[in-house]
Amino acid sequence: MGSLTFKQGIHPEYNKELSNTKAFQKAKRPEQVIISLQQHIGAPCQPLVKKGDHVDMGEKIADSDSFVSAPIHASVSGTVKEIKTIQTPIGKSSQGIVIDADEEDTLAKGIASPGSLSDLSPDDIKKIIREAGIVGMGGAMFPTHVKLSIPEGKEVDHLILNGAECEPYLTVDHRMMIERPNDIIYGTKLLMKAISVSKAIIGIEENKPDAIKIMKKATANEDGIEIKELETKYPQGGEKMLIKALLDRTVPAGGLPLDIGVVVNNITTAVAVSDAVKKGVPLIERSVSVTGSGVNNPINLIYRIGTTIDKLIEEAGGLTEDASKVILGGPMTGFAQPSLDIATVKGTSGVLVLSKDEVADFNPQPCIKCARCVDVCPQYLMPVNLSKYAAKEMFDELEDYQVLNCIECGSCSFICPAKRPLMQYIKVGKNEVIAKKRNKS
Amino acid sequence: MMKEQLVVSSSPHIRSATTVRDIMWSVVVSLIPAVLAAVYFFGINAFLIVSVSIFGCLLTEFLFQKARGKEVTINDGSAVITGLLLALTLPPTASLWMVLVGSAVAIGLGKQVFGGLGYNPFNPALVGRAFLLAAYPVQMTNWMIDGVTTATPLNVIAESQYMTVEYWDLFIGNVAGSLGETSAFALLLGAAYLIYKGYISWRIPLGMLSSVFIVTYLFGGDPIFHLFAGGLMLGALYMATDMVTSPITKSGRWIFGFGAGIIVVIIRLWGGYPEGVLYSILLMNMTVPLLNRYTRPRSFGEGAK
């Protein structure tokens, strides 16, 4: 029997071997961190500190009254130097708190384990997760406590942990499974308890055989937690694709996994949840792969959130001579950065540097209607039409052709032999359609 | 450490290595067995026809693009394919000036007037052939094998209802007919390579061939004969599967294939021409915008509760 998967999708070169055998190393404490107040999908946080204040490591420095938001903590101890407008890794601007680090790493008062799996109630767990500022760490940065709050009337029966790590190059989830299987399982159990389900499935792509072996061994005596092998295919780690592959359930268009009884979280999120409960430590550091042919020594790091990209690249031996594109995230959905002083956020799972010959400027050719984009789209859309309608600003047609169902995985642009920037058009068109709908209502 | 010139562009940041040019030249390569078979069965004249046809297509494309001040793209392989395909639909007795006219019409009227690669609604090679068939009907149906003028198997069937060739000769190509229409074997070999590479759709040829088979059988014809006779193989495998002029949806491709097959049978069994492949594909080309429109796949989770 073959491994589980979804229909269509692509097989890019994975290039995981650059870093998948590199054990996590702790990055040096940066002299300064720049902590964005927008590190999650939802309302930005408001600062709780002001210029000149001393902060301890793990101290909450920003929060929001809004439900869809997650508080933010200092990742170093030191002095607040300023609060200013900064550039975020997704090309937007936000407020950011700049902290000059001292050398003490003084832990904030009151940081201690709040309890254990057996004596915490589901609500306790959700509260701990919120207070720890945990967001989806696969890159999407959706506040985890919101995901775990099941609305009245919805029945959830499965937790799925995403260990697919389908983005090429990235290896942090892979390393987590090898190095911290027990914390993943502890975090899984906490998440299961938080949403009151008895079944969890951890899906792992088969290009990580060592991780599969270790995770299988670690869960051998765990009732209700199952390891399942997934075909190595992009975008296998997309929520909808993952659920289709593991449970053969279809998330309705415009709906959520909740609608079909599933909550999906990332492997690394489970580790953060485990840390928050075992040690009481909020989300102030995370894992990242600094990789690609544009760095001298690809590496997996644990770094303080708010560290600027140049510091992480330094740990990977610096840029090569022909380095020419720096991407935060993976090569399929990540964002190219205009400079190296951009600060990392909770969702920064990869710093990928591509060399000059890898970023050859593709000259788009006329579409030959080969339909390869239609054949690979995991959402069964027609990217060739969508991009055409988006370019001509035909919004009704865009909506009619289900543009809102696009998950922006980039498979269409990847496969296009004419090298047309299909997803770029579609993204713009999709945003316009969303904006138009919002204006109407 | 700081880089001055970082490239910033939209995701995805990696692209598949396959280009339009790769696909086009693969189609050219896949047609080599058919060309070799043509030269083997029909001699040096076949080689000359192929050469002139390709030359004519490249020259026309070059002149059009120069005249319109556009980038010259004659090395993208697409004009070579048109030249090859047109040549393969011509009789081995075709005169070279006629071939040259046909190739100019194929590229000029079939492709460049619509704006070039990707914009043409009809398969250019078929436009070229349709023109030649109308302009030079006698030359176009002057068949010959081993130096003797003869009728094609389809002519024989159409005129006498009596079969005179062996299936094996039909399959291998040892019969009268157009250069590349005769050897089903060589065409299947090339097409298998393209299907393996994922460069042509298997749904269109399967739909077309199976509908010819089924409908001929239902109306008392010899389905195996009709499968391998005439231009069906060349048309189903290489003309109908032309990316630019065939549907982009999977169900659209099935309908396109079935529709073309049914038209072939109608013309062959009851029409005034012995052969209907040319018209079947040109007619179905016209339906492509409609097919694409009405066979939009249901997107993931659409209509799911």
Structure overview:
The complex is a heterodimer of chains A (441) and B (305). Chain A is an alpha/beta fold and 441 residues long. Chain A contains 13 helices and 17 strands. In chain A, helix 3 (172-179) runs parallel beside helix 5 (209-218). Chain B is mostly helical. The longest helix of chain B is centred in the N-terminal third of the chain and has 24 residues, at 44-67. Chain B is globular and about 75 Å long. The relative contact order of chain B is 0.11. The chains are: A alpha/beta (441), B mainly alpha (305). Chains A and B meet through helix 8, strand 15, strand 16, helix 9 and helix 12 of A and helix 1 of B.
Brief digest:
Chain A has 441 residues and is of the alpha/beta class.
Helix and strand layout, with pairings?
The complex is a heterodimer of chains A (441) and B (305).
Chain A: E1 25-26, E2 32-36, E3 46-47, E4 54-55, E5 60-63, E6 72-73, E7 78-87, E8 93-101, H1 122-131, H2 144-147, E9 158-163, H3 172-179, H4 181-194, E10 200-205, H5 209-218, E11 225-230, H6 239-247, E12 262-266, H7 267-278, E13 285-291, E14 299-304, H8 309-315, E15 323-328, E16 335-336, E17 350-355, H9 372-376, H10 383-391, H11 395-400, H12 411-415, H13 422-440
Parallel strand pairs in A: 1-14, 9-10, 9-12, 10-11, 13-17
Antiparallel strand pairs in A: 2-8, 3-5, 4-7, 5-6, 7-8, 13-14, 15-16, 15-17
Helix pairs in contact in A: 1-4, 3-5, 4-7, 10-13
Chain B: H1 20-30, H2 32-42, H3 44-67, H4 78-88, H5 96-108, H6 124-135, H7 137-140, E1 143-145, E2 148-150, H8 153-160, H9 167-172, H10 184-197, H11 203-218, H12 223-228, H13 232-239, H14 250-270, H15 277-294
Antiparallel strand pairs in B: 1-2
Helix pairs in contact in B: 1-4, 1-10, 2-3, 2-10, 3-4, 3-5, 4-5, 4-6, 5-6, 6-15, 10-13, 11-13, 11-14, 14-15
